[in-house]
Each structure stands twice: as structure tokens, then as C-alpha cells.
Design brief:
It is built from ten helices and eight strands. The chain is α/β, with parallel strands linked by helices. The chain has a single domain, classed as Glycoside hydrolase/deacetylase (TIM Barrel, Alpha-Beta Barrel). Strands 1, 2, 3, 6, 7 and 8 form a six-stranded parallel beta sheet that branches. Strands 4-5 form a two-stranded parallel ribbon.
Length: about 325
């Protein structure tokens, strides 16, 4: 099926399944937004065609956390359990706090060069209004979707939800989702809370809105540091220790662009070799595939802490004279 044909089926399939299908470019719709909503600025690369063979097959998002439970979301971010006969170590990239005109387009170019599909959690307020930066932010969102990336909400203003009143927290969630939907014509289903912090009240609202709560397991702390070499080394250590994971980066600082470039080169040098399937190697994939692998090979632990303790014990057994890498 052609890419155009595949995309033309998505809205109907989404309604039929009761959820947005987890294909690249979703949860946003792939059709062109109205011209009075999005105007591409001249300094942003035009959307590039997406090779349909690179898209995952259509299908519902894996129902791994329908309750939007935060503890469950943290465990799911750790990814699939490792099969001793399967060396694949799954990695998926996520970016928070954008879009930012100075950095997000460069990140998109790096991802496109390496044929990597990531997930972006955008802030709703950046997309609204008639000022040039808002117009450009909407164009960047449209470009990200055209390149096959997933887009989710990171609230309207990046406020800590648990520090707000109930009505304010609901507004942050709803307004952030709706700001993206006004550009894409379909609401996103992926949600990441600022600072990774929600409570039972916001969990229930996310559940009612059909959101998929997406956390992370590997992070560079790139909002606290500008040392690209140190951050890259930290990511490498974490990925080696965990054997993959959901990587958290922020597409708002120049140092993160350097970190991403370094990290993609490191992952490429250590990629999984199908000719030696038992040998550990990294597979950089989209979030949907990562979730599907997690559903097929669930972790046999009750929570993330239990898994981390087991990993640390295994590491110490293999490295009796070394501390865990982080």
C-alpha cells in the first residue's frame, strides 16, 4: 500500500478501534493543516516524503497501561525483558519542551539523516498565536509529523501539575492537547507530565481523555548541564547498564544537538547484527515498536525499583571491584 493510501485509512481505523493507531506521524493526523493555521517560514526545511517501507504496520497502541498509572508507566519505560538468546537491545528517543526554532529543526535533520523516528512532547502555548515564533513552531510540528515522528503533549505551559489546583491542572492537560489538535486536526494520545510528576487526580483525567502516559528510563540531564561530552558518556553508561531504554532529551539547547549527534554515532557503532543474533547490540526504533516489544516480553518485576535492584545485583556479580555506572 502506498504511503498516501495508508495515511488515508488512519482516521477511520482510529475511530473503529477507539484509539489513534500507533503509526509514525501519529497521534497527529497527516493531512495538511489549513493555510490560516500553519504557514511554513522560509528558514525551515520543507517536509520530506516518508518512505512507506519505514512505517510500522497499522495497529492499535498496545494496551499496557490503560489506567495511566504512574508507577506502571515508569516500569514500562524500562522496556522489554532480555531474552538470553536474543541480543537486541531496544532504544527509542524522546524529546521534551519544544518546539524551539533554534534547535528542533537541527534535531530533525540529524534524525532524518540516520533514519531514526523519535517522539516529541511539545508545549501547547508555543504553538498558539500569530507571532512569527508561534507560526514557525506550528510549521516545525507539521514537519516533524511529515518526517514520521510521533508527537505528544507536554501540557500547555510546563507547570508542575501536582503544584496546581485541580481546575488548573485539568486546564494544563486539556489546553496542551487541544493546542496540538488545532494544528494536526486530531488530538495526540501520548502525554508526558512535566518533571514526571502526576497524582491520582490527574491520572484519572488522563485516563478519561484516552491518554497514554509515557515516561523515560535514560536521561542526559541536558537541562542542567552544557557539557556535551560528559552527557554523552553518561548516556552510554546508562544504556550499557540497562541494555537499552527510553531516552529523555530536550530539543531546546544547542548542547543537546551535539549530544544527539554523538549518541547516534555511538549507537550506530554498536548496532545489533542480525547475522549474530545472540550478540547484544542496539536497535534504535520508534516508540510504538518499543511498546510492542515490551508487551511481547514484559519485565518480571512489580515495579522499576525491583528491576533496578536486580540489575545492580547482576552488575556487581559481574564486576565485583566496580560500582554500578550511575
Amino acid at each position: 500500500m502506498s504511503l498516501l493510501g495508508l495515511r488515508s485509512l488512519l482516521p477511520g481505523l482510529a475511530l473503529a478501534t477507539g484509539t489513534v493507531l500507533g503509526v509514525r506521524g501519529l497521534p497527529a493526523h497527516a493531512s495538511t493543516p489549513p493555510r490560516d493555521v500553519v504557514t511554513a517560514p522560509t528558514n525551515v526545511d520543507p517536509p520530506q516524503p516518508v518512505d512507506a517501507t519505514l512505517l510500522p504496520d497499522p495497529g492499535p497502541w498496545p494496551p499496557l497501561n490503560l489506567e495511566c498509572n504512574l508507577g506502571r508507566a515508569w516500569l514500562l519505560a524500562e522496556g522489554p525483558a532480555h531474552d538470553p538468546h536474543d541480543g537486541r537491545r531496544w532504544v527509542t528517543l524522546t524529546f521534551d519542551d519544544g518546539p524551539r526554532q533554534e534547535t528542533t529543526p537541527e534535531i530533525l535533520r540529524l534524525l532524518r539523516h540516520d533514519h531514526v523516528h523519535a517522539t516529541f512532547f511539545f508545549i501547547g502555548s508555543y504553538l498558539e498565536g500569530d507571532k512569527p515564533r508561534a507560526v514557525e513552531a506550528r510549521a516545525i510540528l507539521t514537519e516533524a509529523i511529515a518526517q514520521g515522528h510521533l508527537v505528544g503533549s507536554h501540557t500547555q505551559d510546563h507547570d508542575r501539575l501536582t503544584a496546581l489546583s485541580p481546575s488548573q491542572a485539568l486546564a494544563q492537560i486539556d489546553d496542551g492537547i487541544d493546542a496540538i489538535a488545532r494544528v494536526t486536526r486530531m488530538p495526540p494520545i501520548l502525554f508526558r507530565p512535566p518533571y514526571g510528576d502526576i497524582d491520582a487526580f490527574t491520572e484519572s483525567h488522563l485516563r478519561a481523555r484516552g491518554q497514554q502516559l509515557v515516561m523515560w528510563s535514560v536521561e542526559a540531564s541536558d537541562m542542567k548541564s552544557s557539557d556535551a561530552d560528559k552527557m554523552t558518556s553518561s548516556l552510554e553508561d546508562q544504556l550499557d547498564f540497562k541494555g537499552g531504554g527510553v531516552i529523555l532529551l530536550h530539543d531546546v539547547r544547542r548542547s543537546t544537538v551535539t549530544v544527539l549527534k554523538n549518541l547516534l554515532e555511538w549507537l550506530q557503532a554498536r548496532r545489533f547484527d542480525p547475522a549474530r543474533p545472540e550478540r547484544p547490540g542496539f536497535v534504535v526504533t520508534d516508540l510504538l515498536t518499543y511498546q510492542r516489544e515490551t508487551a511481547a516480553h514484559p519485565q518480571q518485576y512489580s515495579d522499576r525499583t525491583a528491576l533496578e535492584n536486580a540489575r545492580a545485583a547482576h552488575w556487581r556479580a559481574d564486576h565485583p571491584d566496580e560500582d554500578t555506572p550511575y
